[in-house]
Amino acid sequence: MSSTSTEAAARRLRDRAALWSVGEIPAADVVGAACDALVAGLDGPALRILAACTRAEADYDVHDLLPPALDEQGLVLHPFGSVAAREAVARALAGRAVAGELTPGELTFRIHQRFGHELPLAARLAELDDEYALLEHDDRSTATRIDTEVTAEAHRLANADADDGSGER
Description:
Number of helices: 8
Largest sheet: none
Radius of gyration: 17 Å
């Protein structure tokens, strides 16, 4: 396997863990990311145990199985509510937008709803959500400009994970 695919799988697992930790996605999505990580070439006993969870078990077991699976891969699940955890969630949401899983408007809404204007890393996205709210229904040119700016900001945030301050992948 190429290091690029293993790095992408590790990033996806880390992002899914961050999103799950705040209730943004179900535990089964974390298990799916663990399975994808195994397929991509990552391995370890804790990762295999996490990947083996059924959907029914995931809601009960991910809480205990995720930390050691991340740890053995050199990944961090930041303490709930910490600035680092909030930034990880913002970067993960931005990554979902870059991947086409969220529209620009959905990204700004979720960022604004979750963090308001209080998270410096994502403050521009909250401001852009305010701009969406002020749009007239027929103002397509302004909407397109905002979409373009949101997309650029999402790329910036998604790429900011290369140096998230933790020293980890």
